């Protein structure tokens, strides 16, 4: 398979996804979907019978069996909503092929062809961020926990045993995948699952104020580094983590980490004393140092556990993180301000006596009854009974809100 074949497959998949989404958005009747799936099955069965590749043929047989089962069960079901959803999901493969053949030429919007590769690109970046975060957390653990002597001995708990079991299972799965004609996709999927499990394990340990198992995490990180070298993803000898870009043959992390650790501990001590003495100004400066100064130097400092976590991260990455954080904080502030204004407007509305509700609207009304409900419009014409009925409902609603407000105010005033 060459690059052109791959491009054609991506374009076809994007077009099929677009047509399938359009089909779902039509909210067709169950009878119509049944008719379409049965129509789609005819060319699909022809394709199955002509297929000579045993792997593809096996896949088509499974799809055919799944769709036929869905058709049979849907016809016998009384639940139309659930049946419609079931048929759309189980019949997706045959529907996509059929829709592409019948309506594929109608798709002219080029933007839809960018969605699928964009999805894979975003998925890739998420995986790389998770992997990099895993390496940073493991390196911080290795720096802050003893690696030799009696202090390095750890009694395993059930969570440790479970993670180690997952690690050994992953090694077997990766070995089996690579022996199967170098099936890197399956191997990487197994690795991704292991990294996810390890990240959850570390997060749970932090939540329980428990130190994660140093040995297991180091073994997992070292194994991943080994595979990255095997796959050619990294070239230089790096113990754990992606290599830092540098023009000198020196490990920057080893050189600066002792100073950063001492600095972080000093800051933590200052924060502890400041909290005891309620020195909010100093605490604010410590936060600014963490949020504004250190990220600009390529250092991420994470509070919450003692000692604080220190991570060397690309400066541009930290600047983007900072921008995202500021955006979220601004959105949160605006939302809070909006709710405050809505509450103030609601309170101001509740304070208006119902008999005064319409009297300021002189551009709409000229005469009112004894309750303050309009009877004539601005031109002096009598308001219709239907309009008076609507205004009366508004009056009664305001009366209810006003009485409730005055009742609450009265109780507060008397307490």
Automatic annotation (TrEMBL):
Provide the Gene Ontology terms for cellular component: cytoplasm
Q: Name one GO biological process term.
A: cysteinyl-tRNA aminoacylation
Q: Which UniProt keywords apply?
A: Aminoacyl-tRNA synthetase, Ligase
Q: Which GO terms describe its molecular function?
A: ATP binding; cysteine-tRNA ligase activity
Spell out the SUPFAM superfamilies in the cross-references: Anticodon-binding domain of a subclass of class I aminoacyl-tRNA synthetases
User: What name does UniProt use for this protein?
Assistant: Cysteine--tRNA ligase, cytoplasmic
